[in-house]
Amino acid sequence: EDQVTQSPEALRLQEGESSSLNCSYTVSGLRGLFWYRQDPGKGPEFLFTLYSAGEEKEKERLKATLTKKESFLHITAPKPEDSATYLCATSGGSEKLVFGKGTKLTVNP
Amino acid sequence: DSGVTQTPKHLITATGQRVTLRCSPRSGDLSVYWYQQSLDQGLQFLIQYYNGEERAKGNILERFSAQQFPDLHSELNLSSLELGDSALYFCASSVQEGISPLHFGNGTRLTVT
């Protein structure tokens, strides 16, 4: 069965302090690795899709990378508005997305 | 705004009751997914429909059922409710049947008392 583990569970950063979030996955035949952002009281918002090891995608201060066993979400010079829970999800042999429990990021001004 | 509409936003009901959650997908999206989110379990896949037909089932209880109508909106029916069913229920849609980004609504928060 597909499994996704995210670490750390929570992360506090100062504004401008860069860091990375980790997503480790176990799937039979990766068909896609997805990153989402979720704000309190809202549904997850799609950020990136990665399909193969070595692929990278960027959006503003966020950069997602993918290896054969894990994905990283790098946050460069974060701002308070980047505070949210970041979710990772994978799709292997089935049509459903399997989500990790997320990393709650807090960026202090 | 994702374009996915869920109603109601909040629902408070008693144990043993039955409720219906409604979802309108993004314009043009044929696939609808239902997920349950609780604090300890994270997002759990319940069921997927594509153009009116059930395509995949996850950890959906027998007390729960869903359907997708010809106009592509979907309903999730929860019956014989228990305290443990209290959670956020999200609907998501995508343009195709296969793997593609899901676009989520803002959920229905169900509280069973």
Task: Provide structural commentary.
The complex is a heterodimer of chains A (109) and B (113). Chain A is 0% helix and 57% strand. Chain A has 109 residues and is an all-beta fold. In chain A, strands 2, 4, 5, 9, 10 and 11 form a six-stranded mixed sheet that branches. The N and C termini of chain A lie far apart (41 Å). Chain B is mostly beta strands and 113 residues long. Chain B is 0% helix and 53% strand. Chain B has strands at 5-7, 10-13, 19-24, 31-38, 42-50, 53-57, 64-68, 74-78, 87-94, 103-104, 108-112. In chain B, strands 2, 4, 5, 6, 9, 10 and 11 form a seven-stranded mixed sheet that branches. In chain B, strands 1-3-8-7 form a four-stranded antiparallel sheet, with no helix packed on it. In chain B, strand 7 and strand 8 (74-78) form a beta hairpin. Chain B is globular, with a radius of gyration of 13 Å. The mean pLDDT of chain B is 94. The interface between A and B is medium-sized, with 23 and 23 residues.
